[in-house]
Amino acid sequence: MARWDHERVVCSVLVVDDDPAFRELAARVLTGWDHLVVGEAGTVAEALQRASELRPDAALVDIGLPDGDGFALTDRLVRLPWALHVVLISADTDPATARAARRAGASGFVAKDELSGHALRHLLEAV
């Protein structure tokens, strides 16, 4: 039996994207799965500050941010002194993006148009 069939695992998540509408959509999807969205950020600098303050279990991070990129941010987030899992997201669906996400230390990559799909839920519930 799958873990979510008998036990809900609540995961605290920081949503990082420069588009406020996308952050709101992501937060609704995640809370619909009973995850706790503890904060949002629109830049690399804000994400680092919010992560340090909130200590989430996971971060959903856009690759394209106004003050840097999600790959470099992922590298910094996974080096924080607690186990923080990062899932990178992007509108870019190039297969090379998923490989680059893994090299940066992310738990995985999900295309933005697959936000409500099984892949993201699986990555977060594996935290």
Produce the secondary structure layout.
Blueprint: H1 3-6, E1 12-16, H2 20-32, E2 36-41, H3 44-54, E3 58-62, E4 64-65, E5 68-69, H4 70-77, E6 85-90, H5 95-104, E7 108-111, H6 118-125
Parallel strand pairs: 1-2, 1-3, 3-6, 6-7
Antiparallel strand pairs: 4-5
Helix pairs in contact: 3-4
* Strand fraction: 15-25%
Q: Would you tell me which CATH topology applies? A: Rossmann fold
**Overall geometric form:** globular
Count of discrete domains: 1
Write structural notes for this entry:
With 127 residues, this protein is of the alpha/beta class. It has one domain: Response regulator (Rossmann fold). Helices cover 43% and strands 24% of the residues. The chain contains six helices and seven strands; from the N terminus they run H-E-H-E-H-E-E-E-H-E-H-E-H. The strands form two sheets. It has a five-stranded parallel beta sheet, sandwiched between helices. Strands 4-5 form a two-stranded antiparallel ribbon. A hairpin with a 2-residue loop joins strand 4 and strand 5. The radius of gyration is 13 Å and the shape is globular. The N terminus is likely disordered.
